[in-house]
Design a protein that fits this description.
single chain; mainly alpha
């Protein structure tokens, strides 16, 4: 599996789960850059990543904004105009975070998945690990959710969440091509998204209510009638799930 974070080429990670047990094996290798970037371009990409990473530390005070990126660029000694690394402002910073969070999740879980007895428990662990990546930004995440729910940003939100769901199923060992492939991934994406938004409102100690909520959603998902063998087009189904969940939480208008 190849992971790319905003133009940065990272180590390829091939993850497989044998049919007996949950043992993970991974292979580290360099991924050839097919973009034709020169050394100067790669240096620029590294600079962009450095700025965006620092900008994430500004989100608590400045929100998901171009201002956060400009402040980070200035602190690193670059012109404030360097915030052109995030040409779409807030959505570029959010996208950077979501890419990085997925990468960090894959790294964190890949040597622990053998501990879980079944796919459902494995998926729940992966979801929990990814949700914990959002916890440092939980007070500001409703702002990100509202930005992602804007019509022009929904396709990007769909791409991130469908990729997240697919990677989760893959890490859990699912290589199926059955007719319910799309429905299963849509169901997992909806579980993840609803839990993430619930977490934004959770004030229980150590977010215990969030983890109970996630467990219940997985119990629901395990029911045959929840997943089913649906033939609805994935894009249409997922878009409806995304909108309905955001609307139910008050982030978009019905």
């Amino acid at each position: 599996m190849s992971l790319r974070l905003l133009g940065r080429t990272v180590a390829a990670r091939t993850v497989a789960r044998p049919s007996i047990g949950l043992k993970i094996r991974h292979l580290q290798s360099s991924v050839p850059d097919s973009s034709g970037f020169s050394g100067h371009d790669n240096t620029k990409n590294n600079t962009n990543l450095e700025i965006l990473d620092l900008a994430l530390t500004k989100v608590h005070d400045l929100g998901w904004s171009s201002t956060a990126v400009a402040r980070a660029a200035t602190e690193l000694g670059y012109s404030s105009m360097a915030h052109g690394v995030a040409p779409d402002g807030a959505i570029s910073l959010i996208s950077h975070f979501m890419d990085r969070a997925l990468d960090e999740t894959c790294i964190e879980v890949d040597d622990q998945l053998h501990e879980f007895p079944d796919t459902s428990e494995c998926l729940r662990f992966i979801c929990t690990t990814r949700l914990k990546q959002t916890l440092p930004y939980v007070q500001r995440w409703p702002e990100a959710a509202a930005i992602l729910a804007q019509p022009q940003n929904v396709p990007l939100a769909m791409r991130h969440l469908t990729n997240l769901s697919s990677q989760m199923w893959y890490l859990a060992g699912d290589k199926s091509t059955r007719i319910d492939w799309y429905a299963r991934r849509s169901a997992l994406a909806a579980v993840y998204l609803s839990t993430e938004l619930f977490m934004c409102e959770d004030r229980s100690p150590n977010h215990q209510d969030t983890w109970r909520f996630l467990k219940q959603r997985f119990q629901d998902m395990d029911k045959a009638e929840y997943i089913g063998s649906k033939t609805v087009a994935f894009g249409e189904q997922f878009s409806r799930n995304l909108y309905n969940i955001l609307a139910s939480r008050g982030y978009v208008s019905h």
